[in-house]
Design brief:
- α9 packs across α11.
- It contains 17 helices and 17 strands.
- It folds into four domains: 61 residues, Arc Repressor Mutant, subunit A (Orthogonal Bundle), CATH 1.10.10; 93 residues, no CATH class; 92 residues; 132 residues, hpI Integrase, Chain A, CATH 1.10.443.10.
- With 459 residues, it is mainly alpha-helical.
- About 4% of the residues have low confidence.
Amino acid sequence: MWMTVKDISEYLKIKEKAIYALVNRSLIPHSRIGKLIRFKLEEIDEWMKTPMADTKGKTILTGSATVCENSFKSIIEALKLKGTINTKQNCPTCKYKFNSSIVDNEGIYCPACNTRPTRYYINAKIFGIGHLYSEPNTHKVFNNYADTLEVLIAINQAWKNAEQKKTRFRKEDFIPAKVEGKRVENLLHTMITSFEYEVRHNVKSQTRLDNLNKHKVFIVDYFKGTDIREIETETIEKFYHGLLRKNLSTRYIKDILDTLKSIFIKYVGVAHIPTFPNFTVIPKLEKQRLGLAREIAIMDKVPDRHGYRIAILVLIRTGMRLNEVPALKVHDLDDGIVHVTKAFTEGKLKLARKNGGSVPYHVTPELWEMLMEHIKDKEPDDYVFTIDGRPIPTARLYKVWKKACSDAKVKTISLQQASRHSKASEIMADHKKRAMEEIQKQLGHNNAKTGIKHYVIED
């Protein structure tokens, strides 16, 4: 009696896709009539009583009626399927986790309670897919073992065909679009693409973008194919320990984890962020103020060539940002005021402030006179401070300042602290001094400290 694939599927209680898989591996007796596949019932019955073997006669499974009694498990073993079918659920009766290796003809079950899970997933990391929780085309969740097995067989068949034809395995054919969008590598790609757009419009820093691309290498290498919603604290810890084994600095590891955390914040939400490792706070530079004595000692060692001395004096006297000094042009100097509109950021001339406009810095008459002498032979559109016709690099100013500190044999202070930070401290000290004088004048105290001590309440 001849039978069709559908007939055999109903007879053996196996999905049709599983029958086709057995046929393709020549693991079940069959005949071909053109493109048609037919089976003889007596051959199938005899096949069921003998060990399952491949076309070379190598035994795959032994035991009578293996396919009927334990069809799903035998198919996985017979076809040597890569990947596994699992569940994250616990038995509703005994509360123990279902063991994915305990399978009968209906799928995973709890032998003690005879219960079954209602949700399955495929661990397809070996194919670079990660975990699949739903059917690729319909997005229907895997709620029975048979449907899950069909997809696993299809993935293996596509993988095998790609290997035989030496073509690329199209893993995207098996990743539901909704799940694809939650893959870590895709979320990171989206974030970087958005960042690139902002960099092009001078909103974000190119340095930050470069760092994101460096962090991407480590994050994607570990989490590729992983749904971000599956990542738990334990996974973060393993990733962290892996970074430690790479002998990276603590600061760099923290930056990588901060990037990963930013993906959670942006695409998952703060409430669902797993716990990240704690880091010892990296100590900040000691707060310092330049002071007149140290300024005189250091400036005495700063050379005059290329306008180094005047450029650094402008920084110290005005509190101007370091990247604004190289961008100054002659037409920015007007009657004792330096108008700043541009700054060099990562080698590119950009707006000094995001909202545009000009920032006026007042300079002392002595410094103004020095500036006028320095630019006397320059055109209005020329840069004020140049080396070989090009704007003076901020790195050169750092280097000159550091060497001057060393030559002066004084306690080293960064140029940022010596200029902008010290200027802010100077302004604050001046305001406090004038406030004390006003308190002394209006309250009639001979010593202003008395009024401050007894009357001033600070929030």
